[in-house]
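Recall from the previous lesson that a structure prediction takes nothing but the amino acid sequence as input. Here we apply that procedure to Bacterial type II secretion system protein F domain protein from Maioricimonas rarisocia. The sequence below is the only information supplied.
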Amino acid sequence: MATDVITPQPEFAGILRQQETFASGQGDDVGERLNSWFDRLMLQAGMEIAPAMVLALCLCSGATVGGFVFVAQENLLTTALASLLGFILPLIVAMIVRSRRQTTMMNQLPPMIDELARAAKTGRSLESCLQLVAEDTPAPLGTELQLCTRRLALGMPLRDALEQLPTRTGLVSTSVLVTALTVHRETGGDLVKVLERLSQTLRDRLQFQGRLRAATAASRATAILMIALPPAVLMFFTFRDPEYFNNLMTSQWGRTATFTALMLEFVGAMWVMRILRNSQRT
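The prediction returns the following C-alpha cells.
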C-alpha cells in the first residue's frame, strides 16, 4: 500500500508568527527597551541569527580582544577598554549592515510600486499583483514581499499579512505603502493612481535626500570626527603609555574631570546621532 509522505517546508517556518521580535519595548523598563532595540536591529539587518547568538558573539569578541590586549600589556584599564571595544564591534557591524539594507530597499521601492501599478492595470486581484511583484523584485525587498505573499496564500487577511512589513524593514515608506493597500482593500478607489503618486513622491524624496546629504556632508563628517576624536585620543595614550591614564585617576580632580568629560561626550554623541538620524530618516 502506497503512502504519501509530506515533507516539512522550512521556508514556511515563522510565517504565522504574530510578532517576529522577542521584546515589545512598550514598557517603561530600560532593559525592555534595550531588548526591543536589539531585536529590531537583528530583524532589520536581515541577519538570520538569533539575538541570543549575536549577544554571545559580542561577549566572545570582547573577551578575545581583551585577552589579547591583557597578554600584550598586562594592564587592567587597557584591557577593560579593549574588551568594551570588542563587545560593541559586532553591534557596529550589524548597524552598518542594516543601514545598507535599508538604503537598498528604499531604492527598490519606487520601481516595485511602478510594477505593482502596471500589474493592477491588467485587472488582476491585489493578491495576484503582490505575488507577481514579489517574484520579480530582487532581495532584500523581494524577500520581505515574498513572506507577505506566503501569508496571504495561507488565508491571512491583507492587513495582517502586511502588518509586519514596516517593522521588518524599518522604513516609514513601507508603512505608507501598507496603509495605502489596506485602505484600498477596505474602502476601494483608484489603486493605480494612488500607487503612481506614491512612486513619484518616493522618487522626489530620494532626490531631495540625495541633495540634502551632499549639502550637509561636511557638517556630518565634522560631527562624526568630533564624536570619535576624544575616545580615539584616550585610547591612543592609554595603549601607548598605560600609566598616563592611571596617573590621572589617582587625584580627585582628575577623576571628576574625567567622568564629567565622559558624561558630556556621551550626551553630545547621543544628541548628534539623533540629529543625523532625523535628517536621514526615510
